[in-house]
């Protein structure tokens, strides 16, 4: 009995260490292009590292039993009459309880951080339709079909839809929000990596759903200003 | 067995199908006439076919004989006296008739579920095949959306039907009862399902529906006519589910054999109690929300579509009130099955009986308070996210209790790795992955990333295969002798297990990576520049194996029912009541009610018996 428990403990320790190390050090997600992305990825690493422990413990116990606690051929007798073990049962109720509560608290803080409203926000209104996007920069009086955002500038997206439900998602920014007809929803993103991305629709909206996307460019402040000025000139002429 | 002298009209289905079809035509005709009479254009497929469907179902049920007894009762003013389940039909014909025996009904349910399972996984394979290359592979985007949506709702209906089948066949036997408390209601619940299945099949030729199984408006209000077929089908399945819930709950509380206190029930009894409680309480919400969508489609009532004054988020709340608790309906009976099979094949008592039994109720109650975790990104009240996050992760606790208990039951046991045990232990591993990947979905900021991606699709296929499909297979191999008096073919069973397990992990493990890397859920296509193709191909190869494995078990069932090795009353040396009677289980179940004296899990305790059977019956081992 002791021997087997020690073996399982060793398997769990080694397996958890390896898996947790991988989850905490390897990136299994696309590029991180917003401050929110860093928070979300760190949260995932922690969640997966903790899950590794339970995965290895349970899978280890299962496979170990299937290998080492097999019936000998011809042995028709029963195993030991172990009906339960109260301290053990209390432990495996209370420890996971404590862990999930801690996780929920961490989750609440991260949620707070990824939805926090900074002072100087760039307002962008997003209007979704079957099957495309329109972006509105109200402070500039401009409407576009592509999204350009200055790096490091917190943005507040105000989303709505003209027909069915859509969802605004740039995977590199991580978090998403539905664009709902008849109401406005809010999504806050601070882009922090230059590059070209896609804004995808992430709520089934009909035949063109897979192709409903718009280009997103994260650019420097200067590039952003000159893009805006260019558009204004175009509009004026 | 086949009796050429039998009058085919005495078989219910032979009367019901033509009557139903004729009544559809009559209903359609009537609706057209009425529309003409009030000056509307006669032909409008939505409302006209809705009337036809309703008249068809009614006539079908009448011709089947579903109302005979009740009508006779009303006409005579007093309860007709006749033997409850007396029938002159040969055994095979009873399966096609309005039969009252719970074992016949259980098999009817299970066979229906298996047919739907085969249909559903074939659709799943078609979807996977489409995704092996960017652009069009075998179908267009419209067909893809229709197949995806049909796959989803077909599988969900399949699970609800399979769950009822398992509870129907097993619960009265396990609890030492003669039959269900309301046998006519029980048959009635089953016979609502064939028309539901027919409507689902017909939804595709009727134009399909492209909303996924969730039917979110406004999309569902605009969807083609197939949507209406699907809504009516789900309505029938839901009604059946509610009626079944009433029956099972009554059985658990009022139908147990003398001496069987709640805490001497097999764990499957607790699982069924929790399941039925959820079915009875929450199914009405999906019925209502779908009905409202139907009315909005047919007569323009403004419930959900904002342009006519409705609210789309309202629909999502109503829908998930049911549909989240429903996912526990999918998995709790499977947990019950695992809890029955593991002790028998480990020769050890279930570890921590009370905790395992009560955790089913814990999951049911906790699971009722988490519906809005499907809506974290859907424009719900921001502050509501926090309490829902907490209730969601709390449900992990009773679920964990079960997993720990199963593994502790196997620990130090004397394990026999026959097919039921192979499937039951694989179910634990699969569910474990499903459960652990579910925790990030409860943590709001993590969910905001992966919700509506393939990560979710991977998660819920793991929970549904681990919580239902693998346990169902375990149950088939384990209880087949009690249904037919024969064993399933063990060697084919092992091949089936190996292919199904390999196929499953090859299909669904890649989904987690795909989702984390941005492959959206419910998409027909992806960009050639996306890093998705390799794993999509791997997954499709797995899906091919997986589908093959389901056809293997179908072959095994059919051939074993005819040629399988004969099984004795209690081939697995189990202690629960169903194994203390002959195989196949006799018509009357128990000659006299058994007297329960101890736990059904007294393995390793010398001389422990669960119940004292009256004379006759079957002796313990053979
Ligand atoms: C060979 C087996 C199967 C394969 C290859 C398969 C494949 C798929 C695929 C590709 C999707 C669409 C994912 C998406 O784009 O959103 C899907 C959705 C789904 N599947 Fe399966 N599946 C299989 C078996 C099952 C089973 C057995 C169940 C139920 C127990 C099930 C339940 C569902 C549900 C509920 C959906 C969601 C549909 C929706 O989004 O509305 N599947 N499946
Ligand atoms: Cu869209």
Q: Level of helix content of chain B?
A: 55-70%
Average pLDDT metric of chain A: 94
Structural class of chain B: mainly alpha
CATH architecture of the largest domain in chain A: Sandwich
The figure for the number of domains of chain A is 2
Low-confidence segments of chain A, ≥5 residues, pLDDT <50? none
- CATH class of the largest domain in chain A reads Mainly Beta
Bound molecules: protoporphyrin IX containing FE, copper (II) ion
Ranges of chain B where pLDDT stays below 50 over 5 or more residues in a row are 616-622
Descriptive overview:
The complex is a heterodimer of chains A (237) and B (622). With 237 residues, chain A is α+β, with helices and mostly antiparallel strands. Chain A has helices at 2-25, 35-68, 86-115, 221-236, and strands at 122-129, 132-137, 142-144, 147-150, 155-161, 166-169, 177-179, 185-189, 195-201, 213-219. In chain A, a hairpin with a 7-residue loop joins strand 6 (166-169) and strand 7 (177-179). Chain A is elongated, with a radius of gyration of 26 Å. The model of chain A has no long low-confidence stretch (mean pLDDT 94). By secondary structure, chain B is mainly α. Chain B has two domains: 1-85, no CATH class; 99-563, Cytochrome c oxidase-like, subunit I domain (Cytochrome C Oxidase, Chain A). Chain B is 65% helix and 1% strand. Chain B has 20 helices and two strands. Chain B has helices spanning 12-37, 45-64, 68-76, 91-94, 102-130, 141-175, 183-191, 193-203, 219-222, 226-254, 267-299, 312-346, 353-367, 385-394, 396-410, 419-442, 444-450, 454-484, 490-516, 533-563; strands at residues 595-596, 611-612. Chain B has a two-stranded antiparallel ribbon. Chain B is globular, with a radius of gyration of 25 Å. Residues 616-622 of chain B have low confidence and may be disordered. The interface between A and B is large, with 79 and 89 residues. The structure holds protoporphyrin IX containing FE and copper (II) ion (CU). Protoporphyrin IX containing FE is lined by residues 121, 124-125, 127-128, 148-149, 151-152, 155-156, 159, 212-214, 457, 461, 464, 468-469, 507, 521-522, 543, 546-547 of chain B.
């Amino acid at each position: 009995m002791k021997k087997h428990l020690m073996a399982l403990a060793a398997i769990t320790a080694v397996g958890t260490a390896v898996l947790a190390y991988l989850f905490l050090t390897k990136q299994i997600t696309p590029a991180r292009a917003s401050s929110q992305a860093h928070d979300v990825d760190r949260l995932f690493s922690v969640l997966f590292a903790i899950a590794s422990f339970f995965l290895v413990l349970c899978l280890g116990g299962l496979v170990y039993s299937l290998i080492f606690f097999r019936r000998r051929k011809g042995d028709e007798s029963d195993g030991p009459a172990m009906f339960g073990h109260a301290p053990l049962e209390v432990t495996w109720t209370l420890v996971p309880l404590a862990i999930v509560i801690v996780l929920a608290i961490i989750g609440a803080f991260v949620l707070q951080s990824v939805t926090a409203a900074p002072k100087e926000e760039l307002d962008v209104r997003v209007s979704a339709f079957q099957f495309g996007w329109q972006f509105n920069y109200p402070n500039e009086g401009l409407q576009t079909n592509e999204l350009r955002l200055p790096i490091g500038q917190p943005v507040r997206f105000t989303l709505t839809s003209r027909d069915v439900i859509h969802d605004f998602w740039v995977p590199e920014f991580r978090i998403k929000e539905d664009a709902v007809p008849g109401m406005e929803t809010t999504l806050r993103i601070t882009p922090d990596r230059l590059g070209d991305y896609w804004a995808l629709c992430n709520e089934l909206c009909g035949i063109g759903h897979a192709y409903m996307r718009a280009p997103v460019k994260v650019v420097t402040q200067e590039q952003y200003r000159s893009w805006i000025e260019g558009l204004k000139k175009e509009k004026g002429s | 067995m086949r009796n050429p002298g039998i009058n085919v009209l005495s078989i219910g289905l032979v009367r019901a199908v033509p009557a139903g079809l004729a009544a559809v035509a009559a209903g359609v005709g009537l609706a057209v006439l009425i529309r003409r009479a009030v000056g509307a254009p006669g032909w409008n497929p939505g409302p006209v076919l809705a009337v036809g469907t309703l008249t068809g179902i009614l006539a079908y049920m009448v011709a089947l004989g579903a109302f005979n007894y009740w009508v006779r009762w009303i006409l005579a003013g007093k309860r007709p006296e006749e033997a409850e389940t007396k029938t002159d039909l040969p055994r095979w014909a009873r399966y096609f008739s309005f039969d009252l025996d719970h074992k016949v009904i259980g098999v009817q349910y299970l066979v229906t579920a298996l047919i739907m399972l085969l249909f559903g996984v074939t659709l799943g394979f078609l979807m996977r095949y489409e995704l092996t290359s960017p652009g069009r592979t075998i179908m267009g985007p419209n067909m893809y959306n229709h197949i995806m949506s049909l796959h989803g709702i077909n599988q969900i209906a399949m699970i609800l039907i399979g769950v009822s089948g398992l509870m129907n066949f097993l619960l009265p036997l396990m609890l030492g009862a003669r039959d269900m408390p309301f046998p006519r209601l029980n048959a009635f619940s089953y016979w609502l399902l064939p028309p539901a299945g027919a409507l689902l099949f017909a939804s595709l030729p009727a134009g399909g529906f492209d909303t996924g199984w969730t039917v979110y408006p406004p999309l569902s209000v605009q969807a083609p006519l197939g949507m209406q077929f699907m809504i009516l089908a789900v309505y029938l399945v839901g009604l059946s589910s509610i009626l079944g819930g009433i029956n099972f709950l009554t059985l658990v509380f009022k139908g147990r054999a003398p001496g069987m206190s709640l805490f001497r029930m097999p764990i499957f009894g607790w699982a069924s109690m929790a399941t039925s409680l959820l079915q009875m309480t929450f199914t009405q919400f999906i019925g209502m929300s779908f009905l409202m969508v139907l009315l909005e489609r047919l007569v323009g009532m403004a419930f959900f579509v904002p342009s006519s004054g409705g609210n789309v988020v309202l629909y999502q709340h109503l829908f998930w009130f049911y549909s989240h608790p429903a996912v526990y309906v999918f998995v709790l009976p499977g947990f019950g099955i695992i809890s029955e099979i593991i002790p028998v094949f480990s020769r050890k008592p279930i570890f921590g009986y009370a905790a395992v039994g009560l955790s089913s109720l814990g999951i049911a109650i906790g699971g009722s308070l988490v519906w809005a975790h499907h809506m974290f990104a859907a424009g719900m009240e921001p502050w509501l996210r926090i309490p829902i996050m907490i209730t969601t992760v709390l449900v992990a606790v009773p679920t964990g209790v079960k997993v720990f208990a199963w593994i502790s039951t196997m620990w130090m046991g004397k394990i026999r790795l026959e097919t039921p045990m192979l499937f039951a232990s694989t179910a634990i591993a699969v569910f474990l992955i499903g459960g652990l990947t579910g925790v990030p979905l409860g943590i709001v900021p993590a969910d905001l990333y992966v919700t509506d991606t393939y990560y979710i699709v991977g998660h819920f296929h793991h929970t549904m295969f681990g919580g239902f499909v693998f346990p169902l297979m375990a149950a088939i191999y384990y209880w087949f002798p009690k249904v037919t008096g024969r064993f399933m073919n063990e060697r084919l069973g092992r091949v089936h297990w190996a292919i199904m397990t390999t196929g499953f992990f090859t299909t669904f493990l890649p989904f987690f990576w795909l989702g984390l890397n941005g492959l959206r859920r419910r998409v027909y296509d992806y960009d050639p520049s996306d890093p998705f193709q390799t794993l999509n191909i791997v997954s499709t190869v797995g899906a091919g194996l997986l589908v093959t494995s389901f056809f293997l078990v179908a072959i095994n069932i059919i051939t074993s029912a005819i040629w399988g090795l004969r099984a004795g009353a209690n081939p697995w040396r189990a202690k629960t009541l169903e194994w203390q009677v002959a195989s196949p289980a006799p018509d009357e179940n128990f000659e006299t009610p058994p007297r329960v004296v101890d736990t059904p899990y007294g393995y390793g305790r010398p001389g422990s018996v669960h119940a004292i059977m009256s004379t006759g019956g079957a002796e313990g081992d053979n």
